[in-house]
Amino acid sequence: MEINGQTVNDTVEYAQLGLSPELMRAIEKKGYVQATPVQAGAIPYFMEWKDVIAKAPTGTGKTFAFGIPMVEHIDPENGEVQALVLAPTRELAIQIQDELRDLCAFKEGVRVVCLYGGQPIDKQITQLKKAPQIVVATPGRLMDHMKRRTVRLDKVQTVVLDEADRMLDMGFVRDVTHILDKMPKRRNLGMFSATISREVLDISWVYQRDPVEITVPADQENRPDIAQYRLDVERNEKADTMARLLDMGDYERVIAFCNTKNMTDRLAGLLGMRGISCQAIHGDIQQSAREKTLKKFRDGQIRVLVATDVAARGLDIDDVDAVFNYDVPDENEYYIHRIGRTGRAKRHGVAFSLVSSVTESIRLDEIKKITGSDIRTVRFNERGDLVATVEQ
User: Fold this and answer.
1) What span, in angstroms and rounded, lies between the C-alpha atoms of 76 and 84?
2) Which of 62, 66, 189, 317 has the fewest C-beta atoms under 10 angstroms from its C-beta?
3) Strand pairing class (2-3; 6-7)
4) pTM, two decimal places
5) 3-state DSSP percent of the chain in helix, strand and coil, to 5
6) Per CATH, the architecture of 225-388 is what?
7) Regarding the domain delimited by 2-215, which CATH topology (the fold level of the hierarchy) does it fall under?
């Protein structure tokens, strides 16, 4: 890890960070002892109200990196909104809310509310009347509440932009800057991102003051442990091949990615016909239905979640056994985000890419070259075992 360009390799335990007994109880309840590098780097500076810009790989604990000091700073006696987290997607916003509530478990009087599109706004207005101190929101829905004057941000002290690169890339630049301009009492701004884009740097230059720059490289310690495989199969054999691999690996929780909404529905049906519990999520499915599907998946009631890249943005599910690229992704970045759903929290993960056309083969070769991914080509031998294919 680097802090302002200086390499720091110290391992840090939460007990060394000077946290309150309430926060330590919440962290111990989660079973955590050692802080991840991004947490060890960001928490002390956040506690001192410093601006932070942090670049760290997906799945390295960014939510606790800003959540712990955020909860520590909240005054439970004050019913004003004191902290705001902006997230690019509903799913990520909900996940952040859940993690912050876990941190608030023993800090009485601290309330967290989540505001996002796709849920009745009246329900959110009712929650806002309960005087939450922390608001987690997507930019569009927060703007709706600001226009209705159902939320006030003038007393906000801490602001965090989570997955800032995606949020700005999705076209929320104007909304984000408008929201930031409405918080005159802001004391610090944190920007957390897997990549630092030009837009992220522009926001930092305008709204941050001498930010502490934290970079956690995807080195061997932080790089997910993911075995990546390629199988060349006929198009009409993809579903059978996936079912076969599921049985061989005895995977309990799997995400399969398709490039189109239509294909996600079709694959869910094909796997269902083969007796595999499976549901699809994509942009045309109502948000309430998507949330129910995600809850079932997290609770282990669904074995396979089939998703498009857009629907999967912001999903923070950290115990996926395997990822399947049923369709080879159209973008190199999508491949990294897809396989990053497995192999988190130092677990071993597996990613399979099913290739059935010349176009998909060329795309995967390009992904392998540009991302530097170690994708091994395998096949089934006569006994039905997976064996490596010798490349010519």
Assistant:
1) 15
2) 317
3) antiparallel
4) 0.65
5) 40, 20, 40
6) 3-Layer(aba) Sandwich (3.40)
7) Rossmann fold (3.40.50)
